[in-house]
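Summary for the steering committee. The consortium agreed at its last meeting that each partner would contribute one worked example illustrating the joint modelling workflow. Our contribution is presented below. We chose a case with several input lines so that the handling of multiple components could be demonstrated. No manual editing was applied between input and output; the record is shown as generated.
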Amino acid sequence: MCKIEDIKFNEGLVPAIIQEAETGEVLMLAYMNEESFKKMLETGTTWFYSRSRQKLWNKGETSGHLQYVQNIYYDCDGDTILVKVKQVGAACHTGEHTCFYREIKREK
Amino acid sequence: MCKIEDIKFNEGLVPAIIQEAETGEVLMLAYMNEESFKKMLETGTTWFYSRSRQKLWNKGETSGHLQYVQNIYYDCDGDTILVKVKQVGAACHTGEHTCFYREIKREK
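What follows is the complete predicted structure of the assembly.
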């Protein structure tokens, strides 16, 4: 049985990888505390904890770019979350679909 | 131009999401310091910094389950890395292909 008690909140936080369910594209990484994790379970949309603003935020609350939760996974160590979502609009505040829009090239 | 100077190592570390290039499956999350990041650029395989053992590790060095780097991205804030890899064998030390093999179900 998998449950919230299996998740280790390190200093109160766990990193959550957000992946678009339909395309497999990794959209962003943000941090959840236990309260935001529970809000996600309750509401079916993603909630995070902002370390800089020290408050909960519901992704897309202002922009309308909500993330509807499809599946939630946690890793072997219980210290990282993976959330598959249906993304409305763009995930990134820059307007890009994913926050990972810049590539670093290896010299070969 | 995207380069290592754009990456913010928070307390010396940056979380790196490892994704299988071929399938899009998210395999694991681990942490890199600047030295391990440079080793990845040099060698073309993933290197991390173990916080518990306080040393660098080359993923798959012992098991043979190496990760060959295909593409490296960083996010809008410069504080998370996404690495697309060709995974040899299983990514997880449990023998599972991905570390995210356990699902938490929402009650609907």
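The radius of gyration of chain A is 14 Å. Helices of chain A lie at 34-43.
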